[in-house]
Amino acid sequence: MRLAFLSPLLLAALAACAPAPQGLRSPDAPISSAAAFDPARFGDVWHVVAAYGDEVRCGPLAETWTRAGADSFRVTGTMCGPNGARAFVAPARMTGPGRIARAMPGGEEALWVLWVDADYRVAVIGTPDGRFARVLSRTPAAREDLMRAARDVLRFNGYDPAGLTPV
Asked: Which run of H or of E encompasses 9?
């Protein structure tokens, strides 16, 4: 009798020791950055049109990427903080094809450009650890065909597009 009672407790304790899933993407899925990414074409205003998690509660967010050198940017914009949207300024530098290191208040984040359409109207960025992903657009609303493509890119890179929320 006592053993039957202990078995569920033992299983629950063992389950608590198992590693928790990290981030928004499957850790087993491959992820790749856009090898043909052109930093010169990426500069300018980007609106966050869809994102994962709590970020959407802050309403419209945008970032301006200004070239600060051949392999660097100065990024200004709004981000979602504990008390709503807040302004930020961050240096960013290219670390590889489609790979950017951006210095944010909480520390450096590794952003990968997972995809950008041929005309640089819509981009999908995320982090290799799956902590972050969003869809950016040059306009406050992206075309539906480009949003479909963005969701496909997220799925391909291990993110669950069902969790993506329009901003």
From this structure: helix 2-17
Q: Where are the beta strands (DSSP E) in the chain?
A: 44-52, 61-69, 72-81, 84-96, 99-104, 107-116, 122-126, 133-137, 164-166
The set of residues, in sequence order, having a beta carbon less than 8 Å from that of 12 and lying 6+ positions away, is none
Contact 43, 116 (CB under 8 A): no
Of 39, 33, 88, residue with least CA distance to 68: 39
Whether 79 and 61 have beta carbons less than 8 Å apart is answered as yes
Amino acid (1-letter code) at residue 48: V
Per-residue pLDDT of 65-113, as tens digits, reads: 999 998 999 999 998 888 889 999 999 999 999 999 999 878 899 999 9
